[in-house]
Each structure stands twice: as C-alpha cells, then as structure tokens.
Amino acid sequence: MMEKIARPQIDLLDHLVVVTIVCLVALVGNQLGAKIDILAALPGMLILLGMVMAGLVVTKIAPFYLPSVAWIALISTILTLPWLPTSAPIIAQVGHVNVLSLATPVLAYAGLAITKRELDVYKSSGWKIIIVALLVFFATFVGSALIAEVILKAQGLI
Fold it and tell me: From its phi and psi, is residue 11 left (phi > 0), alpha (psi between -120 and 50) or beta?
C-alpha cells in the first residue's frame, strides 16, 4: 500500500506577497539588463504571476498531491499550447520578459538561504568540502566549454 504524502500547507497570501516582490525585482532587472521598458514588460509579468498563483491554488485544492512547480508548469504549458487561442497573446506579452531577469532574484535568494543543517554539514566536512566544490566548479566549467566548442565546430561557427 502506498504511503500518503503529507501535503504542505500553502499560505496563498504569503506566496502572493513573495512572488510579487520577485516580479518587481525582475521588472527592474528587465529594465536595467535587457533594456525593456517596465510598462512593456508589466503585462507579461502579470501573466506569469497569474500562472504561478493559479498553480499554487490548484496545489492547495487538487484531490491528489503534486508539487506546486508541477502544477505551475502544467498550467503554463496548457495555456501556451499552439492550437489554443490563449497561446499567441500570452507568448506575445511574456516575450517582453527576459528570462535572466526572472532568474536573478531567485538565484540571489537561493544563494542567501543557507539553513542550519547546511552549516552543520559544512562544519563537519571541514576543508575537504572546499576542495570538492572547487573540483566540481572546475569540471563543470571545463565540461561546458568542451561541449560548446564541439557544437560550435560541428556547426561551422568556429
């Protein structure tokens, strides 16, 4: 018999506040980085905000549990299916939002959100974790550069 997964409690108002703050920061980043006017990007950002909140509502009320990211992705995918009338206007508006401007506040928060458990792991690992981290960073960088080099050469771009 399958064990029932505990459904996390979702405070929609708290999530709305946090996602709104992320959207505002992303709008400013969009203006500064991609040089897209805030008013031009605002409708697309509001659409993204609506999709996120719709996914959170479905997560809260669905008869079975899926993580909110799965619901958000499902709703967003369905709304932008090419044969649906919602696709073209959504894509046109969201096209004014630079993906990097969305990633920046999320990655900044992820970098700052260090838990007590992570600190305990770091303390117990000591200096060895620094060597492992440097090797992982180096290997990831070199691996990415090699893949890019191979693909660019195969395309005849270099």
Answer: beta
Distance CA 113, CA 89 (A): 36
Q: How far apart are CA 82 and CA 20, in angstroms?
A: 28
d(CA 58, CA 103): 24
Tens of pLDDT along 97-126? 998 888 888 888 777 777 777 778 778 887
d(CA 145, CA 16): 39
Residue 51 burial by Cβ neighbours in a 10 Å radius (0-12, 13-18, 19+):
buried
Q: Check the CA dihedral 137-142-143-149 and report its sign.
A: positive
pTM for the full predicted model? 0.71
